[in-house]
Structures are given as structure tokens and as C-alpha cells.
Amino acid sequence: MPRVVVFDEFGGPDVMRIVEEPAVEPAADEVSVRIEAFAVNPLDLMMRSGNSPATVPLPHARLGIEGTGVIDALGSEVAGLAIGDPVILTAIPDSHVRGSYAEYTTIPASRVIARPTGLGIREAAGIWVAYSTAYGALIEKVGMRPGDNVLITAGSGGVGRAAIQIANQIGAVPIAVTRHTAKKVDLLAAGAAAVVAIDQENVVEAVRHHTGGIGADIVLDLVMGPGQQDLLEAIRLDGILVAAGFLDSRPTPAPTSSRTIFGYRSFEHTLDPAVVRRMAAFLNAGVRLGALRPALDREFALDDIVEAHRHLEKGLHAGRKIVVTV
């Protein structure tokens, strides 16, 4: 029988265990996917530890919000897909039931896209969550355009790196923010036009310097918390801040600035088939051009899922995606 990772109580990595479960036949509008690899995301750790923003029913909860594999079975009403097609999972809002930490999962056919040609299995496993979040926030939500100066916090993280690549692909100017000067060289190599290291620089002054005194057109805030006040001051008067992360657990003060602020969560768009088609087209073009590639860290086997979570919790991945092969 297929193996799947489950947990029966909240806690550290050791609460996860691998069990065997009968294969689930797809409903009329669903497909069964044989998982080849999946990525470990911060939301997985939050769900496992009991800190998820959404309720996780116990016991026997599953994990995993992204992955890649091949179609193994089709529901009776599914068209346009065939057994053996390589696909990427685009949305698993009920990951506690059908998460990707498994050898197989069954999912609505509308929530898979064809795996782009030229994208390896490990890359495909770790590209979608970061890419779709950055694309959805910057392009669908706030309409990033060529020439826009875009300030990206947590620039060395998965979503931050994706945002840098996406901004470059459309001709915007990505300015990355990091907490550590030591990461500047890496972020410039990753495509940032400039890097602001807040351990040595004032973010407002640095952004004014890099934008000729105008300020950022868009800020992608993946951190939140008290530091958002400085980000708002770094935006030009009619600029926009889009808050799409929660890395700082401290409260975010009420804004004192008149700048426009939008909130963003990826399911806002990844459950919309029309937007997913646009995302898929953009992703295919970026992969074909070599503009979109996830930064990968270590690869783990399914049997080593506990170690994969420990690796992420310790910050040893340096913002790169941790991939588990099945």
C-alpha cells in the first residue's frame, strides 16, 4: 500500500510518522498523482507544531502544500490530461487531508498544471508555492510594470528569490532587503539590482539612494512586524505595499502612513483557474528563457522527513528550498 506521512499530535518533528494507507480512487473531477518529490515549507512546520493560521484537525493529519509527480489515474469527467502526464500540484488548501507528503495523493484535476519542459523533478517540486505567491502578489494583485522599483523583504528566502526573478523577467527593478550584510553578494548574484542590509543600513535612506530620491514604487513585505513602518516610509507617495508574509511573529503596528496597503494570501489566486492559467504561461516562458529557477538546498528521502524538518527549523537551508524525493 502507498506510504504517507501523518501526525496525531502537535509538536516537534518527531510527531511525524510514516504509515501505509489504501490507495484512494479519484472522484469524477479528480486525478490521482504518483508523487515523485515535494518541498518542505514553513507552513508545514506551523501546521505540525499547532501554530497554523487555519485549524488542523487531529488525529491522522497529513502535510504538504506543493509537489510534483505523474498522473496515475483519472476521474470519469476529467479531460485534457492523460495517465503518465508529469504535473505540478498548484493548490492543496486541505493539505491535512490530501497533502503531498506521500507516495500518492488524489486532487481535483483543476489543481494541477503540466510540468514545464526543461524543469527537473527536484526543481518542479520546489517552484510553485514561492513562484505563485510572488507572481500573485506582484503582478495579479498590484500590477507590477517594467521600470517599477520593487523593494523585496526577506530577499534570500524562497518567495523573495522568486520575486527577484519575476521582477527581472518583466523588466522591473528588484531591490532586496536582508538582515545580514554577508548575504549581499549572494543576492546580487541571484539577480537583485541592489541590496539593502539592515544590520548596517537605514532602509529608508538606502532605498532613496537606489531610486534617485523617489522611493520604491512597490514593497513586497514578506516579514510584517514593527519593521513595516520603515518600509512604508521608503515608498513614494502614491506607491503600494503588499503584505504577503508573516515571518516576524511580533504585532504589526497600525500604519501611520497614507500609502496604500494590500494584504495577500496565495489561495486568493491559486484557486482561480483563470489566474492559474496565466501563472502557468508565465512560468513556462520563464523556464524556457532560463529566468525562473528555484534555489535548492539539500535533498532528503521520504524516510528522512523528520531530519528534513529539523534542517528547516535550524535555518540550515539559507532560504533555499528543501526537497524530499519519494
Key features of this structure:
single chain; 326 residues; alpha/beta; Quinone Oxidoreductase, Chain A, domain 1; Rossmann fold; 7-stranded mixed β-sheet; 6-stranded parallel β-sheet; 11 helices; 29% helix; globular
Strand content: 25-35%
Number of H/I helices:
11
Largest sheet: 7 strands, mixed
- In total, the number of strands is 16
What would CATH call the architecture of the largest domain? Alpha-Beta Complex
Q: What are the secondary-structure elements, in order, as H or E?
A: EEEHEEEHEEHHEHEHEHEHEEHHEHE
**Overall helicity:** 25-40%
Domain module tally = 2
- CATH fold group of the largest domain: Quinone Oxidoreductase, Chain A, domain 1
User: Assembly state here?
Assistant: single chain
CATH class descriptor of the largest domain = Alpha Beta
Structural category is alpha/beta
Structural shape = globular
CATH superfamily of the largest domain: Medium-chain alcohol dehydrogenases, catalytic domain
Q: Averaging pLDDT over every residue, what do you get?
A: 94
> Whole-Å distance between the termini?
14 Å
